[in-house]
Amino acid sequence: MGGCFSKPKPVELKIEVVLPEKERGKEELSASGKGSPRAYQGNGTARHFHTEERLPAPHPYPGPQDCVEAAVCHVKDLENGQMREVELGWGKVLLVKDNGEFHALGHKCPHYGAPLVKGVLSRGRVRCPWHGACFNISTGDLEDFPGLDSLHKFQVKIEKEKVYVRASKQALQLQRRTKVMAKCISPSAGHSGSTNVLIVGAGAAGLVCAETLRQEGFSDRIVLCTLDRHLPYDRPKLSKSLDAQPEQLALRPKEFFRAYGIEVLTEAQVVTVDVRNKKVVFKDGFKLEYSKLLLAPGSSPKTLSCKGKEVENVFTIRTPEDANRVVRLARGRNAVVVGAGFLGMEVAAYLTEKAHSVSVVELEETPFRRFLGERVGRALMKMFENNRVKFYMQTEVSELRAQEGKLKEVVLKSSKVIRADVCVVGIGAVPATGFLRQSGIGLDSRGFIPVNKMMQTNVPGVFAAGDAVTFPLAWRNNRKVNIPHWQMAHAQGRVAAQNMLAQEAEISTVPYLWTAMFGKSLRYTGYGEGFDDVIIQGDLEELKFVAFYTKGDEVIAVASMNYDPIVSKVAEVLGSGRAIRKREVETGDMSWLTGKGS
């Protein structure tokens, strides 16, 4: 399977793709909630995906008047392994040449609209340069996450050495395709006290599980329950874009759930699971029987335990309401963020333009230290300091002081006192699995739910996925790990659904995550826990670098800024089963990596 990286061309480390300013802002726009990833500008008006816009699968080409066909290039214009964006008049198409064959697909990643031509072609699929989603070039199907939708696939024909592409105008404008799904035909749906599949938790894992079941033809009852008051939404966006409204964050519109018979119970808290009688009890006394159960409860944020912890205007960010209130309270006032991990730093970055002052309090000596190491952490810290963020490192909060019940000051163990009108706490999270303690479903000492590669718990018919599980990570010798990230939750939800249907799928995805601060993105792939060295190529000062995290003589994770698509390239190498050796990255010769495509 590693054949796609043969014949390395000796290329130096210049593989960054400089996007035109226009394109460059777009990721941050979509990642900052100003443009919902599901709303597309078509004829100047935002178009939301509706079920009736889905093109029927067998005939993706409606009447001739709805189609457009054009010669887009000469057969010799593209080498094997090359991709090009071509214009069809009604929109662009991604043209791919692989093993002598041409394929034409949608050109934008449906997740946040990244230009796929800047991505990585390998093993018959194209990987998004921004967040790592993968699409099969023969079908357009989504094969790795994040995101929910696939790409349209267009007809290609070759006549007199010219390549012609034919596409429906509608598909060109929509730029996304929802896979064909079954509808629910269970007569009792919505009324009875029993369901075929019950999913506890409506984050990425829960939603992808429900959608996968429908895509695979499952037509029985599915109930998705959530503590939230909203339908499933894009939670990673909360801390990057605190102003975003619930409707901008929604992953699917209300009509979608109705059309496919996925019932969502909001503000529904499960208090007990009775595995012997296959029944759950909700806080309000409602009981529901199930035949298959997915546990995807996610995690609960840790809170401060210091003196004054009950004062007003101290928040953990879990919901759009939390995020919106923080922004309102911070406007022109003093904000303090406790914890310099992903959530805390994203919030601090977002508040710099809104608040009078932003201070960050952290126990470690640099932000992100455990995750990204000392040097990268320091470079990011400098970027924050240049944006007026003040750091109080190697200390913690000893007291929150209030005036008339509302936060006024944060007192540190170092006895420093910081003025504060609002405080955001981002000091980590614990699995939200308290309700399972007496259930007989296995939990480890930290409260995580251990599962096997098929996302099965110790109880038959009970699966678990997302932030609350530990699972065997295939390319790190099946080491049991917890990876509380968005992409991984999607992948686990899919595998759980496949195994509910006895398809014997195993989790094999390579972890991929990102963070965005001050309009800059850092991307990361792999699993870096326990790294013992960091090799940096490029320029840390300029925030234009690749950091390779190694353990012994193996590269176990990679982070980059302004070096696309290197992280997606590495994810493909790791996904192909090939190990990357420390000596290969120490020399700065990246030919093993930059051999474009196959």
From TrEMBL:
Molecular function GO terms recorded: 2 iron, 2 sulfur cluster binding; metal ion binding; oxidoreductase activity, acting on NAD(P)H
One cellular component (GO) term of this entry: mitochondrion
Region (Disordered): 22-46
Domain Rieske: 70-165
One GO process term, biological-process aspect: execution phase of apoptosis
PROSITE patterns in UniProt: RIESKE
Keyword match Transport: yes
Cellular localization per UniProt: Mitochondrion
Pfam (any one): Reductase_C
Keyword annotations from UniProtKB, A to Z: 2Fe-2S, Apoptosis, Electron transport, FAD, Flavoprotein, Iron, Iron-sulfur, Metal-binding, Mitochondrion, Oxidoreductase, Transport
Predominant cellular place of this UniProt entry's protein: mitochondrion
Reported function: Induces apoptosis through a caspase dependent pathway. Reduces mitochondrial membrane potential.
Assigned protein family: Belongs to the FAD-dependent oxidoreductase family.
Protein's name in the database: Apoptosis-inducing factor 3
Gene name of the encoded protein: AIFM3
